[in-house]
Design goal:
It is globular and about 40 Å long. The strands form three sheets. Strands 2-1-11-5-6 form a five-stranded mixed β-sheet. A hairpin with a 3-residue loop joins strand 3 (about 45-50) and strand 4 (about 55-65). The protein is built from four helices and eleven strands. It has helices at about 35-40, 65-70, 80-85, 105, and strands spanning about 20-25, 30, 45-50, 55-65, 90-95, 100-105, 115-120, 120, 125, 135, 150-155. The protein binds the ligand Nc1nc2c(c(=O)[nH]1)N[C@H]1C(S)=C(S)[C@@H](COP(=O)(O)O)O[C@H]1N2 and molybdenum atom. Ligand MTE binds near residues 96, 147 and 148. The site of molybdenum atom has 5 residues, from loops.
Length: about 160
């Protein structure tokens, strides 16, 4: 497989607040700002979750699909190879070091088709001062609804 890698150090500071790095197994690694994320189709979701420490929380978010953000960077897999796509993982990191992994299949329209967003607006207020917020509708716990996302990294498991 041909893949393009950024040679940036994973913890290198990003060039400004609200920017996210998209890297790994993508043909066009890039840094995106909030304006570029607003140029993608915007979706809205309400989420309700229970936090072990703060109890029941409810928020409404608007922003692009994580799928569209990653597709724009050109995932380095053969689109017609459904099974090949099952090897791919997305790791996400927030400014405070909180991180998580998703599988590509969760957001792939032919598999989980989960409407996972990068929220740019929360409860009517823009998030330009902190950057995008991962929104995972349907989760019971809030820990995957991650604020201040700074890094999206697509990985492939060994073929
Ligand atoms: N960046 C970041 N996002 C995070 C967390 C965190 O530690 N860091 N904690 C999560 C947890 S455990 C919960 S319950 C929700 C709480 O979100 P809220 O209090 O804004 O509703 O944020 C989530 N997002
Ligand atoms: Mo939580």
């Amino acid at each position: 497989m041909t893949a393009t890698h950024t040679d940036d150090a994973p913890d290198a500071p990003l060039p400004g607040t609200g920017r996210i790095r998209v890297r790994g197994e993508v043909h066009n690694p890039r840094v995106l700002d909030m304006r570029e994320l607003r140029d993608l189709p915007q979706h809205e979701r309400e989420i309700v979750f229970t936090c072990r420490t703060s109890g029941l929380r409810r928020h409404r978010f608007a922003g692009p699909l994580l799928l569209d953000v990653l597709r724009q960077a050109g995932p380095a897999f053969a689109l017609e190879e459904r099974k090949d796509r099952l090897r791919f993982l997305i790791s996400l990191r927030a400014a405070d070091g909180h991180r998580l992994v998703l599988s590509w299949a969760e957001i792939d329209p032919e598999f989980g088709n989960a409407p996972i967003l990068l929220g740019l607006v929360r409860d009517g207020a823009g998030l330009d001062d902190q950057g995008p917020h991962l929104v995972v509708p349907g989760d019971v716990c809030g820990a995957r609804n991650v604020s201040r996302i700074v890094d999206l990294h697509l990985h492939a498991d060994a073929p």
